[in-house]
Amino acid sequence: MSVQGTRSPVFILGDDAQRTRGRDAQTSNIAAGKAVADAVRTTLGPRGMDKMLVDSTGTVVITNDGVTILEEMDIEHPAAQMLVEVARTQEDEVGDGTTTASVLAGQLLAKAEDLLADDVHPTTIVEGYAAARDIGHAAIDDLRLDDDVDDDLLRRVAATSMTGKGTGDANADALADLVVEAVQQVADDEGANRDAVRVHAQSGASSGATELVRGIVADTDPVRDDMPRDVTDASVLVLDAKLDTRETSADVEYTITSVDQLSAALDAEESELRRYAEAVRDAGVDVLVSQKSIDDRVAAFLAEAGVLAFESVTQSDVNAIASATGATVVGSVDDVDDADLGSAESVRVERYGGDDLTFIEGGADASTVTLLVRGSTAHVLDELERAIGDALDVVAVALDDGGVVPGAGCVEIAIADRIRDEAARIDGRAQLAAEAYADALDALPRTLAENTGMDPIDALVDLRAANETGRAGVVTVGERGEIADPVDHGVIDPAAVKHEALASATEAATMVVRIDDVIAAE
């Protein structure tokens, strides 16, 4: 690229740089965004289809989770990556609705393309979309159900999130019971502590064997086989230090000239290692959890003392165990006092196939809980873990936010109708953009209907008519879809999920629309 003046041209970009400007840049960016949205569109709803993703190494992922699909795809186009960020943001903020947000962003781009073709300026489109978004947020708040957010309502929120996802042979309602129980276990007056609910996936059984553990499940086994495998009313020491002979910081050589000197050196080393074990025993420790290694001789001494010890435990597990038991992570076994120790009602090691799992349970007052997710195959297990993770997120959000709305496309239809009713108050051509926003929202219930085998056009017409006099959505009954009240069928979403989908999809679409110059270096 060069700038011409009265003298010789000034070169700004290198010869290998590529530049796309104006309508060509907008068309390219919008096409990329639409392609990403189309990739996940057919996964929307309880009858959505799955995608099989195969990477360059042959690893296969089968899922209908929007953010997983987009992250596994090898997307290079920068505008398309913005839609991937939409899904990531949705997942990070509220845990569900990633497909909804992505599809809406794609539809907003498609409508913007038509507006640009009609010579509507990008700034005007952004203005109209922003106005429509604000109307949508107000409509969502008006659609909140007056019902108290009790356990029954939370179970319906969890079941709605998991319906249509890969839950193996487990019923979504049964899993929803476990999800709500887990979240309520760690909830207090300030809300649900989502981070206190862990998910541990373990293959080897059907998904119906999934269970709630009031405590921690760690993928670790005892240092020695002759250590106890079941300790009740346990005092727990959490250590971040090696239990091994000390190493000098300087490069020192020792000269041993006799057997007596060698024996003395070995005795000193043995004494030091035994002292570690005695310090642990004298502190009243029943279970030792170490983030670092434990020397075999120390382990033998600990086994003699009846101490159950674990070594090289991951930092995340160490922190979780410390939090669950009330222990303080210490850097030395010297001068350990009672305040440093945690407690657990039970610490047990169980064999699952060829693996040992350690359960550290605290009973009814456990501050950390774990959902032990089971699956017969790796693919089933991965998808079930994703489904339960989403359900935990939406239940926590519903409990914290205190608001739920009807699902099954009911909210999107109601928002679209509200925008059309209020669009006349928007000045100028921005009104056209607001109406296009409403049309983009219609694509969500239309896609739900299409994925259930209904005629999408007829379903959309019937849905609009039903919402004129009441409340209706595209509800799946058995293997078919019908227009019915989603609340009567237990199809409920957190209001926060709808708010976030509206905000993130609008932000991404307007960002892409405003780009009129793409400069790429080779």
From TrEMBL:
Keyword set includes Membrane: no
Record keywords: ATP-binding, Chaperone, Nucleotide-binding
Record GO terms (molecular function): ATP binding; ATP hydrolysis activity; ATP-dependent protein folding chaperone; unfolded protein binding
Domain of life of the organism encoding this protein: Archaea
The UniProt record lists the keyword Zinc: no
Similarity comment: Belongs to the TCP-1 chaperonin family.
The protein's name in its UniProt record: Thermosome
Lineage, uppermost ranks: Archaea, Methanobacteriati, Methanobacteriota, Stenosarchaea group, Halobacteria
